[in-house]
Design brief:
The complex is a heterodimer of chains A (about 90) and B (about 425). With about 90 residues, chain A is an alpha+beta fold. Chain A is about 20% helix and about 35% strand. Chain A has one domain: Beta-grasp domain (Ubiquitin-like (UB roll), Roll), CATH 3.10.20.30. Chain B has a domain at about 80-105 and about 210-385: Rossmann fold (3-Layer(aba) Sandwich), CATH 3.40.50.1100. Helix content of chain B is about 40%, strand content about 15%. In chain B, the strands form three sheets. Chain B has a six-stranded mixed β-sheet with strand order 4-5-13-10-11-12, with helices on both faces. In chain B, strands 8-7-6-9 form a four-stranded parallel β-sheet, with helices on both faces.
């Protein structure tokens, strides 16, 4: 078992169309770090600076926004789902 | 002719051609339509606008369409009403209600954004449109797409008011109720837009969609005789309309259609879902998402995508943010109905209640012009006032029964004051 990370469409040009990758467990920062190491250019898309996500990047752990959890320090276990979702407008 | 140049990321500035894309592939920032304002000078004038029919398309030069409008030919140009009765109650000199509860055909400000989005969906070659909605947007998408011959697929939280649900279903869209709150629906929609290649109006058509909201601000200015109100109070949910009203004001100034003036903009939210007001009060532009808990379901968006831009517009304009409790919202709904004859939904009650608090706290001076933005209609949300309004007694169809009823009431205005007394603000 590993952690599944869902890649949204706008980022798939960096992943050759791959929409999900697996990473080892850890915390959100480590999981995203793993994703960034795997794909060139990903780091700039997700992070404004080390430790600070871009304003319009939302990260979900099993359907919960990490801002309701421990942000980047949120613990991720084997079998968990992590989603990267762009913020979108309301209605 | 169109003055649109293309799309540009609001964050990093990367440019894109016009297409169904909503986030910057570099930084995830929202994309915004760019216009050639220099080419508009001398061509987009008060006269050129006033010569067009009284609907939102009279401002088409400042909207992102390439050809003729395909939807919303009767939408917009809603009343801007001088609210003399409310002025007296609140003790202010010049108060206006911009009343989109009367926006055709589904009675909310959403006609503005949807008219543009539907036109753009057709221009870009989509055959299916959809949306994530707290109700009003779904109603509007369903109605406009029925007329335009597009397939509609609308997604809403499972617990919406019945009027909002039926108000979509009557137009025959496919609808699905999602077990979660609006933010859950929104998130799902962003994944659906990716996968199904539909035009989700508030997702992949968002750059075009949001521009439609500017027409609210254009109309306020034109209806005031081409000038800006000193104070505009606007509800905030996802954060679309407030920054766009502000943008509309700025565009009119830069085109020389209104005199430069300080038009302050204020954000109104329900106390049970106030992430933007909280950020304004705390002096930060980072929005901390919330789990909404309020009767104002149409603005119960705990993770407002454009919240940052609301904070920015409010700050830049010199405005502020204010929230209202559910009880204050209901009182304000009744106050607006009983002074100005306008029945608004909780979002409108929130906006009026916040306005009253801003006046009472001295943030909005009593002797300056104020515009209250009413964005939705109370007939869709009868649930929120049902318990407040006692069902009147029923009597036999006989004059003596009526006489007895009147003498029991003790005054002639029987029924008018049934329910709880209306709280008149300080």
């Amino acid at each position: 078992m590993a952690v599944k990370v869902r890649i949204p469409t706008p980022l798939r040009q960096l992943t050759n169309g791959v929409d999900m990758i697996e990473t080892p467990a850890g915390d959100i920062a480590q999981v995203l770090q793993h994703v960034c190491q795997k794909f060139d250019g990903m780091d700039k898309r997700l992070f404004k600076q080390p430790g600070e996500l871009n304003r319009f990047v939302n990260i979900y752990l099993n359907d919960e926004d990490i801002r309701f959890l421990e942000n980047l320090a949120t613990v991720v276990k084997d079998g968990d789902d992590v989603s990267i979702v762009p913020a979108i407008a309301g209605g | 002719m169109s003055y649109v140049v293309g799309l540009r990321c609001r964050e990093c500035g990367k440019q894109y051609p016009q297409k169904g894309v909503h986030v910057c592939e570099v930084c995830f920032g929202p994309l915004e339509v760019e216009y050639d304002y220099a080419a508009m000078k001398g061509k987009v004038t008060k006269a050129s606008i006033e010569a067009r029919p009284r609907n939102l398309w009279r401002y088409r030069d400042l909207l992102p369409i390439d050809g003729e409008p395909k939807s919303g030919h009767h939408s917009g140009f809603t009343p801007l009403k001088r609210a003399h009765n409310l002025e007296r109650v609140l003790g202010v000199k010049e108060l206006y209600i911009k009343d989109d509860s009367a926006n055709y055909p589904t009675w909310s400000y959403k006609e503005r954004v949807v008219s543009v989005a539907i036109t753009k969906a057709i221009e870009l070659g989509y055959d299916t449109v959809g949306c994530a909605s707290t109700g009003n947007l779904a109603n509007s998408v369903a109605a406009h797409s029925a007329v335009a011959g597009l397939k509609a697929f609308v997604m809403i939280p499972h617990d919406l008011e019945q009027g909002k649900v039926l108000g979509s279903l009557i137009f025959g869209p496919q609808m699905v109720r999602i077990q979660g709150n609006y933010d859950d629906v929104n998130r799902l929609c962003s994944e659906i837009a990716d996968k199904y290649k539909w035009a989700i109006v508030n997702v992949n058509l968002r750059p075009f969609y949001t521009e439609g909201a500017k027409t609210f601000g254009f109309e306020v200015a034109e209806q005031l005789g081409w000038k800006l109100p000193q104070h505009t109070v606007c509800p905030t949910a996802g954060g679309t309309i407030l920054p766009k009203i502000y943008k509309a004001y700025k565009e009119l100034i830069s085109l020389g259609l209104v005199a430069e003036s300080q038009a302050k903009i204020y954000s109104a939210q329900a106390a049970g879902c106030n992430p933007v007001v909280e950020a304004i009060r705390a002096g930060r532009d980072l929005i901390k998402p919330q789990k909404p808990k309020t009767i104002a379901k149409s603005i119960a968006i705990g993770n407002p995508a454009d919240g940052f831009y609301v904070v920015h517009a409010v700050k830049e304009s010199g405005g502020w943010g204010e929230d209202a409790t559910d009880a204050e919202i209901v009182d304000a709904i009744k106050l607006l109905a009983r002074t100005e004859g306008i029945w608004t939904e909780p979002a409108g009650g929130t906006t009026l209640a916040a306005t009253i608090k801003l006046i009472n706290s001295g943030r909005i001076p009593r002797d300056e012009s104020i515009c209250v933005c009413i964005t939705g209609n109370g007939l869709k949300t009868v649930e929120v006032v049902q318990d407040e309004l006692a069902m009147p007694p029923s009597i036999p169809a006989k004059l003596d029964a009526f006489d007895a009823f009147i003498s029991n009431q003790g005054h002639a205005a029987a029924g008018r004051n049934s329910g709880k007394p209306l709280a008149v603000p300080a």
